[in-house]
Amino acid sequence: MAEKNLRAGLIGLGMMGRHHARNLHALEGVDLVAVADAQGDPHGAAQGLDVLPSAEALIEAGIDYAVIAVPTAFHKDVALTFAEAGVHCLVEKPLAFDIGEAEEIAGAFEDKGLVGAVGYIERYNPALQEMRKRLADGQLGDIYQIVTRRQGGFPARIADVGVVKDLATHDLDLTAWVAQSDFAQVAATSTARSGRSDEDMVSVTGRLADGTITNHLVNWLSPFKERVTVVTGEKGALIADTVSADLTYHANGENPTNIWENMASFRGVSEGDMVRYALHRTEPLALEHQAFRNALRGDASNIVTMREGLNTVRAVEAVLESARTSRTVMLGA
């Protein structure tokens, strides 16, 4: 007998919610049966469904799981309402506004035995998915360093947070995931140059628990868009460009570089082949929804767990504390 479709609900029909609605409508094995937003449906995402007023109304519609795309300040109350009703949830990033709220949400879903995930869409970029597979297969050997650059213009939609909580949170999440190691310490410097009270530029130096060193440049002040992750290891480097969804490998060569003697000592390693991989490019948000559907069916191998989301909130708060105090902040035990 064919497996019964999952009944999904969506709360929040704003800029991100409309894209969730589009993907839920198209997701195989899932029926989007109810949507909710107290502010209505400005983008026409409901596609014929009644726009309900609350999380409680979604629960009454008889859903198996919910996607939460309301502003971060409301994540805790909405998520806990679903947890109490036994509804699995995919929560837009970040999991919560602060560590205390994130701990409360993660604990509630774990106590109820529910599937809970956080919507870090960058993880599902084809370039980063392929990078993670190749790192897991040992292509670079030991990982030495991870560098990210996330730069571009200011998004007018952002009014409640600075660049750390809006953008750097992606880099902190994907770095810990790529290396499979949480942050142990961060040192950050930030500035506000656009007239807002929140920071719009940050530079972060970090170290993961496994010893990997990291560096992250994030800002809203660049006249060009850049989304790059560089992982350097003992056998070479992988470079993921998530704007173009390209992945490139630079191998360490087996023969010394042919260069004059006085410069040879500065070369570090010899130069080897460079390969740009041909990738199957699927919309990252579609992959995110597929991964959560698969988790509800028993395969949770490709979701961002709420525990991981909590660890990222901790890293974000550490970055903000470091920038505020001009001190290195330690995380973990």
TrEMBL record:
Residues 129-238 form the GFO/IDH/MocA-like oxidoreductase domain. Signal peptide: none annotated. Keywords: NAD. InterPro entries: Gfo/Idh/MocA-like_OxRdtase_N (IPR000683), Gfo/Idh/MocA_Oxidoreductases (IPR051450), GFO_IDH_MocA-like_dom (IPR055170), NAD(P)-bd_dom_sf (IPR036291). Residues 7-120 form the Gfo/Idh/MocA-like oxidoreductase N-terminal domain. The keyword NAD applies. This is Gfo/Idh/MocA family protein.
